[in-house]
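Problem: given the chain below (355 residues), write out its structure.
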Amino acid sequence: MRIALLTTGTEINGAIRHCYDLAQELARLGHQVHLLHRPGAWIAAQPQHENVRLFESTLKRKRKELGRVAQYLRGQACSIVHTHLSGASFFGVLLARFYGFRSIATCHMPHFQPHWWWNDHVIVPCQSVARFQRFLNLVPRKRMSIIPNFINPDRLSCTLTREEAREMLGVSQSSFLIGTIGTLEKRKGFEYLAQAVTKLRQSGENVQLLSVGPQEDSYAQTIRQYIEEHSMTEHIMLLGRRSDIPQILKGIDCACLPSLREVMPISLLESMGAGVPALATAVGGVPECIRSDVDGMLVPPKCAEALMRVIKIWIDDPEAVRRMGAQAKESMRERFAPAALVPRIVDIYQRYAVD
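Solution.
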């Protein structure tokens, strides 16, 4: 098939990573993929399979740009347009309505936006988003499919030992090291995890915390102020954006996602794929990833005490951490690998493809 993938995001996040992984997997399966992106987008700077073609567009919803994109897609004989992120979805709907393409959209974060209804089909990663799209955006159940996000576990391979990874990070070899990967912003609930780690340090536990990912300026400043006021500079480290996620995952004992709102975070799947158990809040699609006390632990949001209790249990029982990590890796390969999920997306393409 000839498939166009559209994304309006320029920086890396879970939705962009998912779009990139989908493009490479579709190409590996023999499909011709046309990846439409904005100027300077992260996704365009990544290595591409030989079956992936890049096409740069502002993706502004103007007649001239819509016509230019439509002309390109017609020239490449693309009949399916699969969009990622809300702006791309609106652009795809306009391509479908005015130029005859079929529009598939993946909803990575629920927002009240009526344009979702106009897609031929909407893919959602979890039950909570399906309910949102069904009852707020009025997307009919028959035009919606729940297909979880996936990652390719092969990209998580790392040749470093645990000791080498920690030396690279400049952290203690003996501490219980927690990693949180994702944008440092209010909805991620990092302050509750920082409070939990602070209390554990005050009670004598040898624990450290790393935050990896882009930073929202005002929220990051609030966290830095907290770290300084509680003398936690050596124990809570904000590393910012990094490209060496496999190496970081190799060095940590557990991943933590204390979010207030989530859909199905790619970072959670990455930790599972690396054999790292996750401590996460039971919000959005997270309970559809993590089975509490099997391949990780779930706690309520906005509760530093609950986070602290689980971390203390894991510090005292390293065997449980290893067991859950092994189970998380197996679970990811069974439930969230490309081979299990991409064929379901291709089935949707085939249902709507125009000869």
